[in-house]
Amino acid sequence: MKRPMKTFFERYRPHPWHGLPVGPNPPEVVSAYIEITPFDTVKFEIDKETGYLHVDRPQAFNSLPPTLYGFIPRTYCGERVAKLAGTDKGDGDPLDVCVLSERPIDRADILLKARPVGGLLMIDHGEADDKIIAVLEQDPVWGGARDIREIPSSLVERLRHYFLTYKWKPGEPKDEQVTVDRIYGADGAAAVIEARIADYDARFGR
Hints:
Elements: E1 30-36, E2 42-46, E3 53-58, E4 68-72, H1 79-85, E5 89-90, E6 95-100, E7 110-124, E8 127-128, E9 131-136, H2 153-165, E10 178-184, H3 186-204
Parallel strand pairs: 5-8, 6-9
Antiparallel strand pairs: 1-4, 1-7, 2-3, 4-6, 7-8, 7-9, 7-10
């Protein structure tokens, strides 16, 4: 008699922040939950209570993210990350990640595997708010990159400019309290990811 195959599945949708794995081999390969794409004129963001995407705000001006944009599950910006950034406080959010993909991906609310190659040290009103830059795992163009030095500097600059300006509102002055203080490579990204995982475990438990 043939036995039925054993399968595992979630009876209910896992919370993207708390219920999904940080990745198959962090910090080298991580999971990325995507909230917005380069085609979105509205900024979607995870609702921390329900785990569903909600409309945060329309994008100001013609500000569109240059890459897929989301976060790494089971990470948290607390005191360890703040210490790395040289600030007094983290932003209390999961770790943001920008993922390069050669083929256009025009839908959000998806999970993918990404390889971090670097990041931007962003300080938002005194709070650490790093933006990890990663490539889609096994991507035919970007998948071989292992460090930010292998990413065109013009693309890194586009990401830096986006995060310095994406919260601007028409008629209001530039916010001088949002800065990108440093661009770092794969080693720096690994240190930030490991600190964010440790901060998550300290805040929420394993």
